[in-house]
Amino acid sequence: MMLLGNAGLVTILASLLISFSGATDSSGTWQRIGLLFGGLGALLFSARSKYVDRVMSKAITAGLNRFTTLDVADYAQLLQLTGGFGVIELKVEEDLWVAGKTLEELDLRREGIAVLGIELEQQGFVGVPVGTTQVEAGSTLVLYGHTEHLAALGARRSDDEGDQDHAAALARHRSSGRGAVVES
User: Fold this and answer.
1) Residue 72 domain flag
2) Could you tell me if residue 182 is inside a domain?
3) Same domain membership, residue 156 and residue 110
4) Residues 86 and 63 in one domain
5) Which domain holds residue 61?
6) Whole-structure pTM over 0.70, yes or no?
7) Opening angle at CA 113, ends 88 and 182, nearest 5
8) 153 and 143 Cβ atoms separated by less than 8 Å
9) 12 and 81 share a domain?
10) For residue 115, what pLDDT is reported?
11) Which residue, 87, 85, 111, is CA-closest to 98?
């Protein structure tokens, strides 16, 4: 990735040198500089424009529907990845609070965190894992929830303080009214 990034930088610099080396007078150079900055401004406007984003999303969706059999969905909207919610991958280290426990023991659902999947070293990816699934060091959890809660879980260590943090997170989620958990 770094090599490709450097190659791209070298390509851009070489293109600029070639572009400006052909100018024989100062007016041609200023025209090219103006054109360069105008193009960069148009790219910046396009990249930040919600209108351009909507139009491009519709065009891409139409193209994918017409030329592929891919199921097209706006997963950011589907998962409500706004208002502070997100999806993360959490690499489980040995000293992390979740390591060595089953999903049932972790009780993350009552913290407002959903486990979408887990990548186990021995078994591969398990989508929507059951409560008896053991979370071992080296696994990767795919989690959905409020980004603050996900970050706190990622920093929680396996000690008494980690257990206290879990209890506080349970109480915080229960009192926030963000979601009732249906017990089965």
Assistant:
1) no
2) no
3) yes
4) no
5) 2-67
6) no
7) 150
8) yes
9) no
10) 95
11) 111
**Which two three-digit tokens encode residue 108?**
């993350």
In the chain, how many domains are there? 2
Q: Helices then strands (H, E): number in the chain? A: 7, 6
Question: 102 Cβ partners below 8 Å, 6+ apart?
Answer: 131, 132, 133, 134, 135
Q: Please, which pLDDT band fits residue 76 given cuts at 50, 70 and 90? A: low
Instruction: For residues 126-152, give the mean pLDDT.
Output: 92
How far is C-alpha 170 from the chain's CA centre? 25
User: For residue 87, which amino acid is it?
Assistant: V
| CATH number of the domain bearing residue 143 | 3.30.70.1450
Helix (H/G/I), strand (E/B), else coil: 62: helix
The pLDDT-based confidence of 17 (bands split at 50, 70, 90) is low
Length of the chain: 184
Return the higher-pLDDT residue of 28 and 5. 28
Residue 125, beta-bridge partner list: 119
Inform me whether the pLDDT recorded for 100 exceeds 90: yes
If you ran DSSP here, which 8-state letter would residue 96 be given?
B
* 88 and 159 belong to one structural domain: yes
Comparing 19 with 174, which gets the higher pLDDT? 174
The two beta strands, 114-120 and 124-127, are antiparallel
